[in-house]
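Help! Submission page says 'invalid entity' but I think these are all valid:
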Amino acid sequence: MSKVVLRVAQIVGVLVLAGIAISVAVGLVQWILGIALIVAIPVGAYWIYKQVKARKQPPALAAGAPVTLGRSGGATDRRAELEGRAVIDAAGRCGWCGSATLHKDEFGFPTTPLKYHRAEIDAML
Ligand SMILES: [Zn+2]
């Protein structure tokens, strides 16, 4: 009698283990699919955003410059020329105004000459 009970218990145990194994496998697959979906959505959105942005902007302006639609190519060249002057030169001075000290933004943090003189550059275009 106890042998039969042991046999039944063994079968039940195997079935339970198999059930757990299957549920874990299914859960793992669902988890991987969920993660893949979560990763794919922002990556896909970012990729589409990049494609749209690259098509709208000429490559020279893609480096964070504000979009100036309706301007001629000459204005783009002039912007590039002016922005090229607003850099730290070899002597560590601001190429735009010649200041030897680092420019700071409105919060007191060091900023690039390009950002600091942005309004002046825009005014000269
Ligand atoms: Zn300066």
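Support: the input was valid. A stray whitespace character was the problem, and the output above is from the cleaned input. The chain has two domains: 1-56, 61-124.
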